[in-house]
Amino acid sequence: MTPIESASEVAAHREASFLSRQFARWRGSEMLRPHLVSIGHLLSGNFGGVMIMMASLAIATRALGQEQFGILAVVLAIGRVCERLIRFESWQPLVRFVAVEEENGDVGRMSSLYAYGLLLDVASALVAAVMSVLVAWLAGNLIGIGRGNVHLVAIYACAIACNPRGMASAALRLAGKFRILAYIQLASFVARFALSALLYALGGGLVWFVLVWTVSQIFDSALFNLLGFRALAENGIPSPLKADWRDLPGRFPGFMRFAISTNLSSTLRTMTHEMDTLLVSTFAGASAAGLYYLSRRIAKVAQTAGDMIQTVIYPDLARLWSKVGPGAMGQLVSILQLSLAGIALAAVGACWLIGRPAIELVFGPGFADSYQLLLVQLFAVLLTLHATPARAALLAMNRPTYVLAASFTATAAFFTAAFLLIPRYGALGANYAHIAFGVATVILLDLAFWRNLRRAGHEPAPANGAYALESES
């Protein structure tokens, strides 16, 4: 072989490599474009909903004042902690198992799968509602609301009992109804805002505001489930209420194990965003808990982006991991992480510039101390957003056990920091604990994702083009 031929071959190889990289980028962009459209719908709908929610909170803060608003925050936190602790978010295992059943086309089995998820949803919602009342009765004095406010928790428990939404969520996600997911909550947010404004005009007190939050959530859940059942019917899947309920664990082995692992992971992750309010109330009082709760709700405006990314990306990754390959998967996750970092940094910058005057203007001068809490919390949100795409990808790779282990580790870091820092720094200590949680989550999930992606990339591609990582089941 002559030097000229060698040089020509090298040049040709480089050109082929360049074209391969360009094709991979093009393929990634074609894969990303429809996702960006769906994410855009979800972000616009949820951003509008969050803005309306902020308006409702502004009415509540001005109507109730710092102390009573703190009690409202603790009442809501008790209900949500019990709900996250007990409730099965069955949409995650349903998305994965229904995606497999879709290849077989057996609508009867798919209907039974949805029935399995619905059964878990309803049972866990009822248990969570009862548990919330028991917690308020037994530990009301400890967490700062006293036994005299147990009736408020009992009212809100009705919303928890009527909130089995995992099955409907899976149906809407798999049907690609992202516009519905984006805008469905707007109806309940508008109703809550209208009722809150009416209460403010009439001089309604704390009990009435708890009722407003309860009724609006029941309305949201009812509408959500109605649309979920409709999505199933449109796809030709019989109603889960008419499905064969016999021997569901035996007919779908592995479903419960996957549900437990992913739901524990989700529970650990969300409990840190709800139990923190109770910890602040326990160590610093209901008034401080109200300030902290407000800062967390404002930070949710940015964090919503991460939730929407997982809503859009996870179902398709669960379907397409075997076809996409590691290169396009890595590109997609990288682009999403950069985009989410930009959103979080923009939120931090906006808070730095106008946070304090904006809080005083919207929520009243008595809540200006939420500014410092919000600024620190947004750094924790940045970390959480960064980890979201890697978490969704690992679930699509069938690595729920690792995601669960990472959540356990990050949650341990959160509660260790919380118990050390909240007694010393008050509500600000809870924000520092969220940063500890975020750092642990990012390190563990990013390392696992890129390690598994490199392993898949180094393995020879199967003849049919499918890629698969080692299953944990």
Summarize the structure in words.
- The protein has 473 residues and is an all-alpha fold.
- It is globular, with a radius of gyration of 24 Å.
- Helix 1 runs parallel beside helix 6, helix 3 runs antiparallel to helix 4 and helix 11 runs antiparallel to helix 12.
- It has one domain.
- Helix content is 84%, strand content 0%.
- The chain contains 15 helices and no strands.
Count of separate structural domains: 1
Largest sheet: none
- Please, what is the oligomeric state? single chain
Order of H and E elements: HHHHHHHHHHHHHHH
How helix-rich are the residues, as a percent range?
over 70%
Query: Which stretches are poorly predicted, pLDDT < 50 over at least 5 residues?
Result: 1-29, 460-473
End-to-end CA span: 52 Å
**Discrete helix count:** 15
Strand content: under 5%
**Morphology:** globular
Q: Which structural class matches the secondary elements?
A: mainly alpha
What is the count of β-strands? 0
Q: What is the average per-residue confidence, as pLDDT, rounded to a whole number?
A: 80
Radius of gyration: 24 Å
Describe the structure concisely.
By secondary structure, the protein is mostly helical.
Relevant terms:
single chain; about 475 residues; mainly alpha; globular; disordered C terminus
